Amino acid sequence: MKLQELLEHLHPLVPFRGENPEITSIENDSRKVQTGSLFICINGFTVDGHDFAESAVQKGAAAILAERSLSLSVPVIIVKDTVRAMAVLADAFYAHPTRNLRLIGITGTNGKTSTSHLLEKIFFEANKKTGLIGTMFTKVADEIIETKNTTPDSLTLQRIFHQMIQREVQFAVMEVSSHALDIGRVHGCDYDIAVFTNLTQDHLDYHKTMEEYMKAKGLLFSRLGNTFNPTRPRFAVLNNDDPVSILYQKSTVAHVVTYGIDHEADIMARNIEMNSSGTACDLVVQGNIYPLKLRLIGKFSVYNVLASIAAALVSGIPINNIIQSVENVIGVAGRFELVDAGQNYTVVVDYAHTPDGLENVLKTIQQFAKKRIFVIIGCGGDRDRSKRPLMAQIACKYGTDVIFTSDNPRSEDPSAILKDMEAGVYDEKYLVKLDRKEAIWAAIEQASCDDAILIAGKGHETYQIIGDDVFDFDDRIVVREAIEERLKCI
Ligand SMILES: CC(=O)N[C@H]1[C@@H](OP(=O)(O)OP(=O)(O)OC[C@H]2O[C@@H](n3ccc(=O)[nH]c3=O)[C@H](O)[C@@H]2O)O[C@H](CO)[C@@H](O)[C@@H]1O[C@H](C)C(=O)N[C@@H](C)C(=O)N[C@H](CCC(=O)O)C(=O)O
Ligand SMILES: Nc1ncnc2c1ncn2[C@@H]1O[C@H](COP(=O)(O)OP(=O)(O)OP(=O)(O)O)[C@@H](O)[C@H]1O
Ligand SMILES: N[C@H](CCC[C@H](N)C(=O)O)C(=O)O
Ligand SMILES: [Mg+2]
Questions:
Q1: Contacting residues for 284 by C-beta, under 8 A, at least 6 apart
Q2: Which residues lie across from 25 on neighbouring strands?
Q3: 372 C-alpha vs ligand 1 centroid, how far in Å?
Q4: Residue whose CA is at the smallest distance from ligand 1 atom 46
Q5: In Å, what is the CA distance from 424 to each residue of 208, 391, 393?
Q6: What does the buried/exposed string (b/e) look like for 320-341 if buried means 16 or more CB atoms within 10 Å of the residue's CB?
Q7: Whole-angstrom Cα distance, residue 266 to residue 287?
Q8: What residue stretches are annotated with the Mur ligase C-terminal domain (predicted)?
């Protein structure tokens, strides 16, 4: 594509003169630039991409998109906001891939990964070709691609959609983080369905207030249906048990479909009964009642199931297929994942990393725990500090034996993170063990018959980030080793 043809997608006041080279790729990382690339300079949180423009030209960049003038031997196009321009240009360069996909975006503080995996499974089992983008990985048909962020930057994202089109994917399900909505990573995505799970405290390091956080998530709904193809129906799937849904409902021109447990909704679950191996309930859809037997545990899992059922129904998947798929789901990796190595107590590994997530999981455990509840919990570094004391409080409210330990300290001092947690707790009911492996082993040493152990915060993660180092660490493997070692000694 010629540079001028590409730039026509920006607004007409963007000046363009001079050479009109062929653009063979778009890159925002100078290290990936090749001959013919358009290099987009992004002023990031860590470094300024403008500082790499010269090296991009040396690597063969044919043109540069920047926010300020740069003296270079190739055309430099100046825009006010390169992040925004990147989203528009990436969408155009890859021939507007989301116009040809049924795209479902899922936002909310907790439950995005769980709901998106459930929904992808429903589509897959209904013989649709699927794509998935989220925290754990990205999937294009049967190919798994590693991604760094829950929602990748717009360039990576449009490239993935393009691959999906090439692989004839019909339904793409993606997690849409509040960061992505705020920064503009999903600008240019044409969603058919937007799903809201819930809103509780997280990411205040970034958004500063709950109001700003709520507004960022709301962008998914206010933009829905404002894009390219007005003839395709758009749906907002909202959780009626979360008061924020009323605001999102007001902000969208799309059709609204609601789900809920405690408040009247289009799609509901009633008569929920739970034990340690599953959940039974009645699914109510348009006055019809369908008995559901889920292998997933907890009220929060029922919400995720309802959200995925609602999105699948408005996508035209028959109810009986949907029910069969959700009943088959054993679980999502690292979400209420039970570790059974032959011990006589329950071990749960869960990704709860917010106050609400932790409370939901602990309430669930409390419902079937017969004796002590051990909680092993830490908080991530370089993330919302204000959630640390709250998570510590919740751990001590529901746990009988609590061990505060490290999560991913990242650039922070691990002891300082634990001090932030301790500030929320006034009794002495907890132990502090900086080393996560030691914390897990200590709990296993003390556990006895019918106790329950929750290892929270890292779920599916197979690493621990300490400083700039990434170490192998998987709660599920570490706890299994500890259990097996203890069983040997009996
Ligand atoms: C705070 C934040 O959002 N940071 C994101 C941001 O990184 P950054 O601004 O630090 O980038 P940077 O290193 O300053 O680089 C600026 C520019 O210079 C370029 N560069 C850099 C070096 C070089 O040699 N040459 C070069 O051209 C880079 O490619 C980039 O274009 O842009 C990167 C590329 O898109 C992201 O991967 C990175 O996410 C980091 C890893 C992150 O941890 N983000 C978290 C806060 C996040 O976004 N989380 C959300 C929500 C998670 C959830 O709740 O599920 C998510 O969606 O992941
Ligand atoms: N609907 C829900 N409501 C409240 N808590 C939930 C819900 N679903 C899951 N959780 C809790 O939150 C944790 C994270 O779930 P999940 O990974 O699905 O959320 P997420 O929104 O994708 O999180 P992230 O922001 O990290 O991408 C789970 O391990 C569980 O403890
Ligand atoms: N998506 C969340 C995941 C947190 C997981 C936790 N283990 C941590 O590292 O803080 C975040 O990036 O804030
Ligand atoms: Mg997620």
A1: 267, 268, 269, 270, 290
A2: 37
A3: 42
A4: 179
A5: 20, 8, 6
A6: eebbebbeebebbebbbbebee
A7: 9
A8: 334-459
Neighbours of 271 (CB within 10 A): 10
Half-sphere exposure of 89 (CA within 13 A, CB side): 31
**Residue 63 Cα distances to 19, 23, 73, 157, 327, angstroms:** 9, 8, 9, 22, 53
Along the 490 residues of the chain, how does pLDDT read in single tens digits? 999 999 999 987 777 677 899 999 999 999 999 999 999 999 999 999 999 999 999 999 999 999 999 999 999 999 999 999 999 999 999 999 999 999 999 999 999 999 999 999 999 999 999 999 999 999 999 999 988 899 999 999 999 999 999 999 999 999 999 999 999 999 999 999 999 999 988 988 899 999 999 999 999 999 997 665 667 899 999 999 999 999 999 999 999 999 999 999 999 999 999 887 899 999 999 889 999 999 999 999 999 999 999 999 999 999 999 999 999 999 999 999 999 999 999 999 999 999 999 999 999 999 988 899 999 999 999 999 999 999 999 999 999 999 999 999 999 999 999 999 999 998 778 999 999 999 999 999 999 999 999 999 999 999 999 999 999 999 999 999 999 999 988 7
Contact 384, 203 (CB under 8 A): yes
Ligand 1 atom closest to residue 183's alpha carbon, by position in its atom list: 3
Determine the CATH number of domain 337-488.
3.90.190.20
Please name the amino acid found at residue 441.
W
The domain segmentation of the chain, as residue ranges, is: 3-93, 97-328, 337-488
**Amino acid occupying residue 226:** N
ipTM of this predicted structure: 0.96
To the question of domain 3-93 being in CATH 3.40.1390.10, the answer is yes
Answer whether 292's CB lies under 8 Å from 269's CB.
yes
Q: How far is the CA of 25 from the centre of ligand 1 (A)?
A: 20
Find residue 467's DSSP bridge partners: none
For 274-333, the three-class secondary structure string (H helix, E strand, C coil) is EECCEEEEEEEECCEEEEEEECCCCHHHHHHHHHHHHHHHHCCCCHHHHHHHHHHCCCEC
Token reading at 66: 């920047």
3-state SS assignment for residue 245: helix
Output the CA 415–ligand 4 centroid distance in Å.
27
Answer whether CATH 3.40.1190.10 is correct for domain 97-328. yes
Residue to mutate (ligand 2; options 106, 112, 114, 387; most atoms within 8 A of CB):
114
Question: Which helix or strand (DSSP H or E) is residue 395 part of?
Answer: helix 387-398
Closest Cα to residue 374, out of 342, 350, 408?
A: 350
Closest ligand 2 atom, CA of 202?
25
